Amino acid sequence: MTSTPAIAVTHAGGQLAPTTIERRELRPDDVQIDIAYAGICHSDIHQAKDEWGGSVFPMVPGHEIAGTVAAVGPDVTKYRVGDRVGVGCMVNSCGECDYCREGYEQFCVKGNIQTYNGVDYDGAHTYGGYSQQIVVKEGFVCGIPEGIELDVAAPLLCAGITTFSPLQHWGAGPGKKVAVVGLGGLGHMGVKIAAAMGAEVTVLSQSLKKQEDGLRLGAKHYYATEDSSTFDTLRGQFDIVLNTVSAKLPIDAYLSTLRVGGAMVNVGAPSEPLEYSAFSLIGGNKVLTGSMIGGIAETQRMLDFCAEHHVGSEIETISADQVNEAYQRVEDSDVRYRFVIDTSTL
Ligand code: NAP
Ligand code: ZN
């Protein structure tokens, strides 16, 4: 076991505070990573406050991890010491079920093992990226291509893949109109990635406060949903509505903005149930669906896509002592557009 500095929360809704955790000895197929940066995802906040239920404490959050390989086990073939790598939301899965074999490890029938707030198959609790080191099975490590710095790459490991996967699945590309709801961590990546895919992108934000940014990030249009005329203006417009909002939204209003056959994809994960009228779907053969991160091979494809299209996250780098304040700013929709912890400050 090796000790590594980290920040942890000890009870639901508590403050994050410095601590030390143990990482396991390298197994033959393990990669030991010196973490350089860890992004703060709103899922970290949901779980640190136990908003989804079932949280296990103490918790070291963090599933947007970027760093360099410090050591490898004897059976590791893909990575060498010094390689730039990332780890996202999962660190293990059974590897044998249909979903794992098809590259959908997130849907493993035995249950994928979350990077933190999870219990691995050997009974060990998992601790995430708000720390200086992590040990992860090779198959759950992705390579960060040259051309993306580690700080702006970290958020791609969750915010990037969570938006890339449904955008690709539902056909974002030239000739397609995509609305991104909520311009936060996921939303700003959704805008950048959909624009890089060639789609015509519209931001639907609560207010016009971030309009300049939205357009700079690649959106063609920007509307404030607090303006009640917005939904009349946008009726029947979009092929895809990507909902990244962490709170309950009036789903029917957003479904009204879809074209016939269009799809609204929820990636936002509010604790409250969403409600909609069956007629909002029936009148236009519309699809209301969800999407959960992406598989490991797909995450690597996303990283390669982002490198090729010069897409990184817009970040505000913070030190360990600013994390509690950053959590509050994320909850206040005041993140521009992802906080990334410089783990050398732990
Ligand atoms: P975030 O940075 O806080 O962004 C969410 C954005 O939603 C805010 O910036 C805000 O944008 C908008 N918003 C917030 N409260 C709102 C409200 N009451 N009404 C309308 N809009 C509101 O959060 P994130 O890190 O992007 O994560 C977003 C959600 O996705 C979270 O629930 C997270 O748990 C979930 N998530 C899901 C997956 C998955 O696999 N499906 C993966 C990662 C995260 P505007 O100010 O522009 O309106
Ligand atoms: Zn996340």
Question: Characteristics of this structure?
Answer:
single chain, 346 residues, seven-stranded mixed sheet, binds NADP nicotinamide-adenine-dinucleotide phosphate, binds zinc ion
Q: Mean of the pLDDT scores? A: 98
- Low-confidence runs: none
Radius of gyration in whole Å, from Cα?
20 Å
Bound molecules: NADP nicotinamide-adenine-dinucleotide phosphate, zinc ion
Structural class: alpha/beta
Number of helices: 11
The shape is globular
Q: What's the main sheet like?
A: 7 strands, mixed
The overall strand count is: 17
Estimate percent helicity: 10-25%
Report strand %.
25-35%
- Give the topology string: H per helix, E per strand: EEEHEEEHEEEHHEHEHEHEHEHEHEHE
Span between N and C termini?
19 Å
Set down the secondary structure blueprint.
Blueprint: E1 2-8, E2 17-23, E3 30-39, H1 42-48, E4 65-72, E5 84-87, E6 90-92, H2 98-101, E7 113-114, E8 133-137, E9 142-143, H3 150-153, H4 159-169, E10 177-181, H5 185-196, E11 200-205, H6 211-216, E12 221-224, H7 230-233, E13 238-243, H8 251-255, E14 258-266, H9 278-282, E15 287-290, H10 296-308, E16 315-318, H11 323-331, E17 338-342
Parallel strand pairs: 10-11, 10-13, 11-12, 13-14, 14-15, 16-17
Antiparallel strand pairs: 1-2, 3-4, 3-8, 3-17, 4-5, 5-9, 6-7
Helix pairs in contact: 4-5, 4-10
The structure holds NADP nicotinamide-adenine-dinucleotide phosphate and zinc ion (ZN).
